[in-house]
Specification:
By secondary structure, the chain is mainly alpha-helical. Helix content is 39%, strand content 4%.
Length: 90
């Protein structure tokens, strides 16, 4: 019988955004909300033993994105990496 984790903690030490004119607090809030939604809906592999130090291979994002949309797109990229589908250096 498998064990279902009760809590998943993702800690991102720094997120540097260059070329965007957005409120970083709003980006962070949208990022956290979307990443939480994705993990609750789709989960992440429970047996993964990695630490994501850097995210690479992000698609280009237009500089005119809203803070909310930017946070959502970044969360989707991170979730893909956590799920083993994106490019994450380990």
């Amino acid at each position: 019988m498998g064990v279902t984790p009760r809590e998943i903690r993702v800690e991102i030490g720094e997120l540097a955004l260059e070329g965007f004119r957005v409120d970083p607090d709003r980006v962070s809030a949208a990022f956290a909300e979307e990443l939480t939604r994705l993990i609750e809906r789709h989960g992440v592999p429970a047996d993964a033993s990695w630490t994501a130090e850097a995210l690479t291979g992000l698609p280009p994002l237009p500089a005119g994105l809203s803070a909310r949309r930017l946070g959502q797109e970044l969360a989707r990229a991170v979730h893909e990496g956590l799920s083993g589908h994106g490019e994450v250096s380990r």
